[in-house]
Write a structure and sequence with these properties.
With about 90 residues, the chain is mainly β. The chain has a domain of about 60 residues. Helix content is about 0%, strand content about 35%. The chain is built from no helices and 7 strands. The protein has a 4-stranded antiparallel sheet, with no helix packed on it. Strands 2-6-4 form a 3-stranded antiparallel sheet, with no helix packed on it. About 25% of the residues are buried.
């Protein structure tokens, strides 16, 4: 049996800027696995994911090694990502 090798995405799939406190991003067509990031210094910042079309969200474990950025690696299909921060924060899916 051999290890599964996932293709590595080296370019940005989608990115944007929050216009308010939160934004839901549909993940249809997103690469899997992918890395989802939120560049924010807001104290209530969060990245949450949904597998049921955005009805229920859960908070995955994410890296906080960079104080102004949250990073989540998603290795299974999700339908929606909810970014929470403040207007002007940027999000990225790679």
């Amino acid at each position: 049996m051999s290890d599964t090798v996932f293709p590595r995405m080296s370019s940005i799939w989608e990115q944007g800027t929050l216009n308010g406190a939160s934004f839901q991003k549909a993940m249809s067509g997103a690469p899997c696995p992918c890395t989802v990031s939120l560049d924010s210094t807001n104290g209530s910042r969060a990245i949450q994911v949904s597998t049921d079309g955005g009805i229920n969200f859960f908070t995955p474990v994410y890296s906080v090694n960079i104080p102004s950025m949250l990073n989540v690696t998603i290795a299974a299909p999700v339908t929606t990502v909810l970014f929470t921060g403040q207007a002007g924060d940027t999000w990225t899916v790679v």
